[in-house]
Amino acid sequence: MGKKRRSLVRAAFSAVMLVMTMLLLSGCADYMVLDPKGPIAAKQLDLMIITVILCAIIIVPVLVITFVIVWRYRASNKKADYKPEWAHSNLLETIWWGIPIVIIIVLAIITVRYTHELEPAKALASDKEEVTIQVVSLNWKWLFLYPEEGIATLNTITIPEDRPVRFELTADSPMNSFWIPELGGQIYAMSGMSMALHLQADEPGTYFGTAANFTGEHFENMTFDVHATSDADYEKWIAEAKASPNTITKESYEEMSKPTESEEPTLYSSFPEGIYESIVTKYMHEGAELHQHGSAAEGEAEGTASADSQANSEEHDSSSHKGH
Amino acid sequence: MLEKIKEFASEFFVTGDPLIYGADASIVLATLGIVFVLTYFKKWGWLWKDWLTTVDHKKIGIMYILAAIVMLFRGGVDAVMMRTQLAFPDLNFLEADHYNQIFTTHGVVMIFFMAMPLMFGLFNIVVPLQIGARDVAFPFLNSLSFWLFFAGAMLFNLSFVIGGSPDSGWLAYPPLSGAQFNPGVGQNFYIWGIQISGIGSLASGINFIVTILKMRAPGMTMMKMPMFTWSVFAASTTIIFAFPILTITMLLLFMDRFFGAHFFTLDGGGNPMMYINLIWMWGHPEVYIVVLPAFGVFSETVATFARKRLFGYVSMVFAMVIISIISFFTWAHHFFTMGSGANVNSFFAVSTMIIAIPTGVKIFNWLFTMYKGRISFPTPMMWTIAFIPAFVVGGMTGVMLSVAPADFQFHNSYFLIAHFHQVLIGGVVFGYFAGLYYWWPKMFGFKLNEYLGKWAFWFWNIGFYVCFMPQYLVGLDGMTRRISVFKDPDWQGLNVLSTMGAYLMGIAFLFQVAQIVYSIFRHEKDTTGDIWDARTLEFSIPSPAPEYNFAVIPQVHSRDEWWEEKERRARGEKPWDLGPIEPIHMPKNSAIGPIMGAFWFVAGFGLVFHWLWMAIPGLLGVFICMYARSFSAHKAEYYIPVDEIERTEAKLRGGAV
Amino acid sequence: MAQSPAHGTDHHHHAAGHHDPQDIKLLGFWIFLVTDVILFATLFATFIVLRGGTDGGPTGAELLEINGIIISTFLLLTSSFTSGVAVLAMHQHKIKQMIIWLVITGLLGAGFLYLEVNEFLHLIHEGATLQTSAFWSAFFTLVGTHGVHVTVGIGWMIAIIIQIVRRGLTDDTKGKVTVFSLYWHFLDAVWIFLLSIVYLMEVM
Q: Do B623 and C155 touch (CB under 8 A)?
């Protein structure tokens, strides 16, 4: 390869890198995950930044050393040392086993602390009352139930700002995942069990919500808007929903739960009581007790699966305490 | 009657999509073309005797690699089609269900039918030569492994034109992949394609462990083994522990779909979460199975082209063993968001992070192998150097993903997609390319054209960053994986960029094809067998290696045996006396491998369509083949006489020795 | 993993490369058994996870009968013993005795299979099939996989006996008998786990 061509390739390469750096810098503030609007997403962002900084302690020197070594010890540089037999150094190897170990220990401690703190089933500390929204993944739309208000929505939610929201999630479809990037991380929605996720919006606005785990043909249409409003506007919105001519009945739910390609956001003024619980227990045989759901399938399993089931049954226990 | 046939045909063959008609036509044309060429040049006998029935590890390796390159093309076309669809919002290049099939087959093809065979190809070609052996421990089983892989790969690819492709993601989580939500035959193709080739992989794992433990040349202790052989040993050990889990997982999914069992169903007390646990108990080790041999390749190339001993050999071995052990204790990091609770998530987060330590150590050791070396930059070394920044950055995003609470924001987004493509392309693909360029002269006796190779290299690398860096960003902006259409205009710029990157990599692949074709006609011959001035035993014999590999089995004294030998000769010392040439005991070719593969294919096809009249004879054929082998195995050996070996050696070495 | 350091030195250097094929086959078979252990371990894990998943249908405690299982266990354990005796006879070059003991092993294995099929038919008759519930899916798959292993073992043994009759005792056929008896003992060990985890723990 000629010198000219090599410099051409290099120029192209640096141009690409430049464009990408610009993209990163110009858009930085706009990326949803990097622009949190709630306490959970904010803490998750903190954690990302801590991780990047800790990793950078190793990675930046490695990248620099790579470049320096490759450049300095190229065969055409006759001035550089050449020690073909040198292949071992206790000191150096101790250093590069040691430093990563220390960094990983630090990161591990931070991670374990945050994992407990940000456990999605844990209620958020707040002096304001929690709003509960029950979420059902259907093919291919989201059904939201507001049990405290008796209203329901399809593919849209409104929440009051600055108040903790408790999402209870299940699926009447293959396993899905419920994600509002600006408010915080996702959680799976699965048939036969109820999961919990606690989020909060710190300021009014419209946030992007999406399904994150593939559920089949028209999965791409499972997006929804999350409107965070003032308390007053929230009340107004509830009233508007209650005035809606649409209602959900047992029969219309049957119809609704069948696969459809895409649905417009809709408000419903009522839904049958206990419909969420009946969706969760849909595949349970008769006679099984309600609070067992989620863990019933695993029985008294051992190993990892038992960890799953215990965690789930813990969630359910706490939810049933709150619910009643 | 005619109506019935029509109805059957319209379900049997995939219809209605011009892209698929195009594929049908090209498959038929290519098949006819191959048949014509073979018939015209009277090559059928040659193909059967010299290749299809061979038990020679070098030829089996070449067949693996050829198949892997074809599959790289298929998986690559899938990728380019996906990126085309995602270039602009609301584009309608592919229908939703077609898109879903393509991302599923892209993943399956790339992991099972591209990475695995490319890996086994390199294992086959290199390991016996590197340890001074005449073949692998079980040459017939080796041939059988290849044919099982091939039968599985063909069965899976057939789904594109017959019956319809699977469309529930490369790991096919139930209940989406169960009969309730996925009644078609596509998912059956998935199960049997993977099952049949998976049994082959398992057999290969056993084969290479025994080969490495039992077939090393005298004097080569475990701690004198070349690092690539060590990596094969680590990967094979991981295979034998991980692949049985896959076999059972696929079996249970099949039981659910075929017999109506309730392992992973929603009703009947089934547990879909168990599938997710099982598939990742195989799936996470699988990632290390494919990346460890790449680490092995880098350890060879970096020492050869820095003309220096590999730094920190003991650390390297230790790191690899730790990685393969810990890889079995990290699987749940693929579903932190499944609600396993803080304690479980903490455990798996920390175990995942720990893997970063030995991996980091390996990077340092490679860097300090180059330190105070004399580095030259032929294509294998370029891939090696390009690997370091790609893998370091990919490793960093991997650590980011391992932080469980943060993963709630990355999971299932394009951030994750970018991460695993960065480590799988930057680690595995770059590594296997480095290995392919490095050992190509050993396989074929000539070097690949460096000029075209460098073009391919730069297109690959630039395309790689242009494609995947924007995906990290668009993932941070909330774009999730597996959506066939995106609506948010904010994502458009990044997606266009990413698509351009995919096209650049597509062009890079074309350069590689051109490179291979050009090099076949005009090339630099490898006359010495040691074109890179390398360090390990495979370069002490002529290129391509004779069928018996070593006329006389070498005696090993040090890790870089061939390099030390050259140093000794340069100092004017006499070469080691290895004793006289003796008749060599060799395994005979066997037709049972390809025939049994064909029976597996028939059985698999029958099971896909629930046609027991086809499946049962197929399975019966498999058992008859096993019996036939059991009864004929003792006759399947012969000796090469001394004078023939002497003639071959004289010809290959040009009378130099 | 590490091989004795003497290995390289106690051969004449030019004789190297003539590795003992029976030795290699035996190691290969041991490693195959490792994979089979993982295979069964995975099935046991699924059984344990799904143990509670009877979905309101019949449970193991209701339908499984220990008496028949004790006879099966006796047959299989005895067959393991007889296969061991066959290997002993082989080492003493008593071909006839060896074949007789192998045939007895096979017959005991066939008896075991007969009882297993009977048990399955009985369970199906009682309304417990693969489709009944997760518990029964796991039960039939786990026990059935062991049964398939026994069936394959019997078929394999027949092949070995025919080869010995035709070719006599060579290094090759001796190796086959050794490996087969390993396999047969392994199936016995798996059965002990099956007996305790599936039958005893379920019924008690």
A: yes
